Sequence to fold (156 residues):
Amino acid sequence: MRWDGSDAAMLNAGVRTVNGYWSVESLYDVVGRARTWSGRMSWWGRRRRRGAPPPKGRMDGPGMAVDSNAVRDHLEAFVSSKRGVEAFVEPPTNVTATTVVLIAHDGEWTRRAVGSRDEAFELPRALGIPVYDVNQTGYPSRMREWNSRQRKASGQ
Fold:
């Protein structure tokens, strides 16, 4: 039976849901030959992958899961390889968690998400560097100058 726009043709074509997926089993291809292919498409479960464990916590936003050890290791490496490093705490937004921006004396910077505002202030203090709230101090001009130099060097 060919598609004629009716629900009966849709049922005869084999459209139904199976385990949360739309299953389409078309009886005929475009030119009317019998078809044996059936496809599966998920409308709402795109993140589900067979065999993959479900993600732990949110993947982004204020409640996202953060690997505190990896963040600490990265910040320690940045502080030990640069001089004059200062930390700036950025508040969470609708799409990002609380973040810490480390800025070196020459303006080079790195940003990492942290679990909470308290942790954002504690990490830099534990590393022995000054920490500021970016809402109160703003970003230092050396950061903007470093960004400009990087753009010019890359030809943008």
